[in-house]
């Protein structure tokens, strides 16, 4: 237990002052854990404050509509987390009398809650002695004990879960789990950890065997696909534009976007022009022009999106078109939102300049 006790002592002295650590309420623990999946603490913190202000309780979150939740989540990425968050809030509020399941096994039945998240909530909110296993845990344990099991292999999860469970002080589950994760986040970092100041420098197998840079072992690499998106920003006679909701499964489900032409490769102006001309808009096109020079590359975990924005101008008034101000209230992928914000702010500045 020397490892466990030393780790907890390190945690109590070095832990970050994070708002969700000032409570053991399952709503706040759950909210923070969902937000911090695939997300750094610094990026997730403002969203945590925004959500707890907008939705102080799980019932408040449940009563909100999905578009409001997605808009507030905008920019945090992995939007399925927000949809699952909302669905789970509705289940807890409306079907479970507002009560969170209070066990690891029951928590795993919630939408969007896997083994790691269930273990974190169960141990931190309810004190259940169940270990957490995430990327930080893989890294700390594989280095300290010199484990060269490929962490992407099927057996890795069971092996590391069993090891973490054997180290877990049953009466200090919350502290130990948070200590293990915090140690991986602050001290035993992926690249160039400062092993000279590490509390385990005399007992870490990876350091003794000069394997810090090769552990943990991760052989499987994600295959990245390149996609080419051409967004058509229609500008009608009123200066309004058309948007649509992405209803198909996949990236950005239920977020909004402009009419989209996806191509198999990057398009130049001539190619884009001919594609747009073939698009059945139902109105006469006055002009087509690119709205920027360089392709915007937006990197997701398994996809690199190569994005171009094209303005399609018509003198006609389109019934379903919306004003820029209205459109900006809809939930959009952050790359689209940022482009719109720059575009329309520049147009507004130009209009003011022309008036003066």
TrEMBL record:
Domain HhH-GPD: 35-186
Keyword Methyltransferase: no
PANTHER family the UniProt entry points to: ADENINE DNA GLYCOSYLASE
Gene3D superfamilies attached to this UniProt entry: Helix-hairpin-Helix base-excision DNA repair enzymes (C-terminal), Hypothetical protein, domain 2, Nucleoside Triphosphate Pyrophosphohydrolase
Cofactor binding comment, as recorded: Binds 1 [4Fe-4S] cluster.
Record-given protein name: Adenine DNA glycosylase
InterPro entries: A/G_AdeGlyc_MutY, DNA_glycosylase, HhH-GPD_domain, HhH_base_excis_C, HhH_motif, MIG/MutY, MutY_C, NUDIX_hydrolase-like_dom_sf
Catalytic activity from the UniProt record: Hydrolyzes free adenine bases from 7,8-dihydro-8-oxoguanine:adenine mismatched double-stranded DNA, leaving an apurinic site
Task of the protein: Adenine glycosylase active on G-A mispairs. MutY also corrects error-prone DNA synthesis past GO lesions which are due to the oxidatively damaged form of guanine: 7,8-dihydro-8-oxoguanine (8-oxo-dGTP).
SUPFAM superfamilies per the UniProt record, alphabetical: DNA-glycosylase (SSF48150), Nudix (SSF55811)
EC number, as in UniProt: 3.2.2.31
Cofactors demanded by this protein: [4Fe-4S] cluster
EC top class named in words: hydrolase
One GO term (biological process): mismatch repair
Entry annotated with the keyword Metal-binding: yes
UniProt keyword list: 4Fe-4S, DNA damage, DNA repair, Glycosidase, Hydrolase, Iron, Iron-sulfur, Metal-binding
One example GO MF annotation: metal ion binding
Homology family: Belongs to the Nth/MutY family.
């Amino acid at each position: 237990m020397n490892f466990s006790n030393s780790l907890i002592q390190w945690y109590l002295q070095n832990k970050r002052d994070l708002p969700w650590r000032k409570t053991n309420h399952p709503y706040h623990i759950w909210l923070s854990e969902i937000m911090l999946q695939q997300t750094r603490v610094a990026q997730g913190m403002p969203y945590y404050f925004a959500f707890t202000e907008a939705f102080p309780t799980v019932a408040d979150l449940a009563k909100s509509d999905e578009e409001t939740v997605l808009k507030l989540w905008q920019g945090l990425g992995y939007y399925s987390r927000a949809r699952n968050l909302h669905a789970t809030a509705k289940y807890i509020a409306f079907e479970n009398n507002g009560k969170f399941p209070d066990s690891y096994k029951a928590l795993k039945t919630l939408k969007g809650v896997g083994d790691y998240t269930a273990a974190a909530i169960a141990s931190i909110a309810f004190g259940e002695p169940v270990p957490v296993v995430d990327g930080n845990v893989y890294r700390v344990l594989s280095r300290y004990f010199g484990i060269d099991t490929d962490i992407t292999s099927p057996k890795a999860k069971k092996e590391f879960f069993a090891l973490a469970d054997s180290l877990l002080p049953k009466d200090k589950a919350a502290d130990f789990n948070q200590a293990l994760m915090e140690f991986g986040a602050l001290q035993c970092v992926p690249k160039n950890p400062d092993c000279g100041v590490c509390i385990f420098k005399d007992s870490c197998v990876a350091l003794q065997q000069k394997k810090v840079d090769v552990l943990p072992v991760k052989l499987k690499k994600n295959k990245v696909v390149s996609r080419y998106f051409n967004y058509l920003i229609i500008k009608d006679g009123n200066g309004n534009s058309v948007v649509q909701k992405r209803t198909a499964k996949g990236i950005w489900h239920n977020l909004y976007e402009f009419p989209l032409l996806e191509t198999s490769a990057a398009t130049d102006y001539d190619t884009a022009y001919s594609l747009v001309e073939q698009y059945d808009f139902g109105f006469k096109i006055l002009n087509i022009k690119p709205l920027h020079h360089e392709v915007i590359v937006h990197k997701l975990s398994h996809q690199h999106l190569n994005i171009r924005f094209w303005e399609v101008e018509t003198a006609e008034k389109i019934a379903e078109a919306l004003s820029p101000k209205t459109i900006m209230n809809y939930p959009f992928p952050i790359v689209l939102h940022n482009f719109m914000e720059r575009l329309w702010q520049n147009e507004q500045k130009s209009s003011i300049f022309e008036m003066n």
